[in-house]
Amino acid sequence: MRARERLLGAIEADLKVAGMPPLAWYDVLWELARSQDGKLRPYEIEERTLLAQYNLSRLLDRLEREGLVRREVFAEDGRGRWVVMSDAGRKLRERMWIVYAKSIETHIGSKLAENEAKTIAGLLDRFL
Amino acid sequence: MRARERLLGAIEADLKVAGMPPLAWYDVLWELARSQDGKLRPYEIEERTLLAQYNLSRLLDRLEREGLVRREVFAEDGRGRWVVMSDAGRKLRERMWIVYAKSIETHIGSKLAENEAKTIAGLLDRFL
DNA sequence: CGATAATAGATGCAAATGCATTTAATAGCG
DNA sequence: CGCTATTAAATGCATTTGCATCTATTATCG
Description:
2 copies of one chain form a homodimer. By secondary structure, chain A is mainly alpha-helical. Chain A contains 6 helices and 3 strands; from the N terminus they run ααβααββαα. The first copy, chain A, has a 3-stranded antiparallel β-sheet with strand order 1-3-2. In chain A, helix 1 (2-17) packs across helix 5 and helix 2 (23-33) crosses helix 5 (87-107). Chain A is globular.
């Protein structure tokens, strides 16, 4: 818990210094970027990011307001929506990644050997 | 990050079901309980819990409002305060611990062997 | 088919958080 | 000593979160 606190704090701070939005934005943009067509249903993003439904709904409001995604109708089910990534969204994710990757390397990569990282990942995987 | 998300969510949920306040309350009460005289300066709690200064200040407002702690003058430095644990605070921490301990065992203890837990702790310690 | 239940997502309101700044007091230095 | 810088803690205001509920739509089952 403490390690996560420290790491997340350090990484968010790096993003902020670089004038970037919070990590949660990245998480959503990343899930969209690596999805088939750059679009997902809100509940899919929810599952993948572990964001609460109401928090995601409002996060999407913010992303939409910034022109990073847009919500489109999902024809097969009138209750659903598509969340579609825009070009601006793709661009921002790439710019964020440059900062984020460096931050990961600084705060994590440089402190763990490959096999140690694998050990942690293997053990923590039991909780997922 | 995900493991922490899941675990914390599960533990907070257990506390809530048992009618207990959030884990942050426990953290503060625990630091007080294990301190010398059941009292600490706000900045000491801040260091130990990693809570932000302004968040702690307001958390203490809530704890004080519930009669779990009280703020007293710190004679040696007029800027400082003592945060003193009350009997109700001690009692609550104990009751929380019953739920919390069970929750830890259920969600963590039962999934890791002693040596595995030590391995994780040893590796994550690099980030502190 | 029609009524009831379930699901996807949005939203009003209260509480918590983040940020910048304030207040009050002590420390440090010429 | 007096002035400026620093520190401890609190606070006003904007943003975000949590909770409960709502709306709209689809699924289920007699």
